Amino acid sequence: MRSLLFVPGDRPERFAKARAAGASAVVVDLEDAVAPAGKDAARDAVRQALSAEAPVVLRINAAGTPWFEADLALAAEAGVRAVMVPKAEDAATLARVAAAGARVLLPLVETAAGLAGLAAVAAAPRVERLVFGTIDLQADLGLRDATEDDLLPWRLQLVLASRLAGIGAPIDGVCTAIDDAPRLAADVARARRLGFAGKLCIHPRQVAAVEAGFAPSAAELDWARRVLAAAEASGGAAVAVDGKMVDRPVLLRAQAILQEAGH
């Protein structure tokens, strides 16, 4: 899951275009993208459009809202590959979503309470990855004009909690600058350096850059192959590649790079 592209749940005519954008997953959004008056109609439209041949991630409305229970009725549909749970703050809410038939859970950590309950959220059954809700978190914490670097402490908390829970690396939040390619590239590079596996996208134009930014580069693949080849040829003896010693952490990094690329 390198790129997860949002599409409004009340715009079913856009679903096919979103699928064709090349994202790792399409996130059909019943929450922020749909006005309160249109929630029920959007849910019905999504139910009609779901396809087992092209399953999507479904972002439901948060627990405690008038639409949460009705949204759960879609969780077990064959066309839903995962459920994105907004305002994820405790394991009990995630258990309710799982009990409704969700195969995979993607909790959105976007509140102070979510950060406080991070360990329990990450360890809940069927959680595959955490997702960082940067915009909502800033609002919840009362941050004013925060930069992406200001969010560094909480980003690292998601990475650490994911590792401790033994789940996949987390997904970073959106870049709101749709037409600012340098900013998007910088956001992707930062997220990858910090240990994130992918990023939320709000426009199809962002998908290609996100996919490319999280994929191992040709130079990384070449380095990883040379590290593994040198280690194998050494027969267990100490060996250096590019003037640096190859120890177990270096080997694991090389193996991870090749795994990322599907090698």
From TrEMBL:
Superkingdom as given in the UniProt entry: Bacteria
Residues binding substrate: 59, 110
One example GO MF annotation: citrate (pro-3S)-lyase activity
One Pfam family matching this protein: HpcH_HpaI
EC assignment: 4.1.3.6
Enzymatic class: lyase
Binding site for Mg(2+): 110, 136
Keywords assigned by UniProt, alphabetized: Lyase, Magnesium, Metal-binding
Gene3D superfamilies given in the database record: Phosphoenolpyruvate-binding domains
Residues annotated as domain HpcH/HpaI aldolase/citrate lyase: 2-204
InterPro entries registered for this protein in UniProt: Aldolase/citrate-lyase_domain (IPR005000), Citrate_lyase_beta/mcl1/mcl2 (IPR011206), Pyrv/PenolPyrv_kinase-like_dom (IPR015813), Pyrv_kinase-like_dom_sf (IPR040442)
GO biological process: oxaloacetate metabolic process
UniProt name for this protein: Citrate lyase, beta chain
Cofactor(s) annotated in UniProt: Mg(2+)
